[in-house]
Amino acid sequence: MSQPSDIVEVAAAVITRPDGAFLLARRPKGKPYPGYWEFPGGKVNPGEPLFHALRRELQEELGIHVEQAYPWITRLFTYTHATVRLCFYRVVAWRGDPHPYENQELSWQFANNIRVEPMLPANAPVLRALDLPPVYAITNATEWSPEVSLAQIECALQKGLRLVQIREKGMTKEALRAFTVDVVSLAHRSGARVLVNGYTGNLDFCRETGADGVHFPATQLMDLAKRPAIAWCGASCHNSEELFRAEQLGMDFAVLAPVLPTLSHPGSATLGWQKFAALIRNCSIPVYALGGLHRGDLITAWEHGGHGIAMMRGID
């Protein structure tokens, strides 16, 4: 078995078109796992910066010049021939048309409708992560009233919102159930997913209301012995220990907060963007930034390695 000193560093690219499709390459004969599909990229030379390796590999393999790319997740995987650390970047701007300069096949695919197989084993969690949208909305119906909140959510869904967390500690169980059913109905008509907060409901509540998963507060996250048997699991984190636990349990994503000052926790210490980036560097699961953010902060989150942003008061 490969030892840590034998880990092969790889810069991997999720080359994404404006319509959301990303590029996959089929490994040619003569390489390990011939015929398998993977994300373009290649080995990092000793002492070479990751972004330099990414640009070099994509120019050699595909003939494109990367103009804009954001750091994303890092996955460690052990194959029979090597242990690789896949450092993923999301490439959103490039010059040139991709061509298969190393005898590989190329195909544009969508995360929710992969039409090529087989995929390299390391890529299954990556494809699932790519199915997560960039904005995660958190309800605040206790402050705004359920009627106003539902109207805001419906408007946001029409504008493309695809992930909602129901977090309503102040509601009675009966009111919460009715509100959740209404949100799930609205969301599912738009192809969006709904998670209920761990304080808000348990797995039975999730299933009874038709919700797609559970979002665990940090205290519950640290008490979990294993990932629950539910389709989607998210977790709130505030430090490296909680992020590590979310990774260990195989959460689909984490939310790290607070990044900036927020109305819900006035006077609380904030991470700031630099500490946010440092905490999630090499994280194996997508991480949303939360705390005092608006839609205009999305690119800033991407630049610092975040998957996207989570907002409570920015639903519109």
Gist of the model:
With 316 residues, the protein is an alpha/beta fold.
Task: Report what the structure shows.
The structure is a single chain. With 316 residues, the protein is an alpha/beta fold. The chain has two domains: 4-130, Nucleoside Triphosphate Pyrophosphohydrolase; 135-311, TIM Barrel. Helix content is 29%, strand content 27%. It contains ten helices and 15 strands. An eight-stranded parallel β-barrel has the order 8-9-10-11-12-13-14-15. A four-stranded mixed β-sheet has the order 4-1-6-5, with helices on one face. The protein has a three-stranded antiparallel β-sheet with strand order 3-2-7, with no helix packed on it. Helix 8 (240-249) links the parallel strand 12 (232-237) and strand 13. 40% of the residues are buried. The mean pLDDT is 94.
Task: Supply the key terms.
316 residues, alpha/beta, Nucleoside Triphosphate Pyrophosphohydrolase, TIM Barrel, 2 domains, eight-stranded parallel beta barrel, four-stranded mixed sheet, 10 helices, elongated, 8-oxo-7,8-dihydroguanosine triphosphate pyrophosphatase activity, ThiamineP_synth_TenI
Average pLDDT figure: 94
CATH fold-level assignment of the largest domain: TIM Barrel
| Main β-sheet description | 8 strands, parallel, barrel
Distance between the termini: 51 Å
Strand content: 25-35%
The outline comes out as elongated
Number of domains in the coordinates? Answer: 2
Cα-atom Rg, whole angstroms? 20 Å
CATH architecture of the largest domain: Alpha-Beta Barrel
DSSP summary: helix tally: 10
